[in-house]
Amino acid sequence: MAKVLVFANHKGGSGKTTTSVHTAFALGDRGFRVLLVDLDSQAHATLYAGMLPYKVSRGIFEALCAFVEDGVVMKEVIHKSFCFDLLPSSEELGGFEAKFSSFPRREAIVKNFLLEVEKEYHFVLIDTPPSLGLLTLNALVSGDFLIIPVKVDFLSLAGLAQMMRTLYRVNAYFNPELRLLGVVPTMYDGRTRVAKEVVRQLQENFGKEKVFLPIRQDVRLMESPSFGQVVFQYAPHSRGAQDYQAFVEEVLQRIGENG
Ligand SMILES: Nc1ncnc2c1ncn2[C@@H]1O[C@H](COP(=O)(O)OP(=O)(O)OP(=O)(O)O)[C@@H](O)[C@H]1O
Ligand SMILES: [Mg+2]
Question: PANTHER family from the entry (predicted)?
Answer without folding.
Answer: COBYRINIC ACID AC-DIAMIDE SYNTHASE (PTHR13696:SF99), P-LOOP CONTAINING NUCLEOSIDE TRIPHOSPHATE HYDROLASE (PTHR13696)
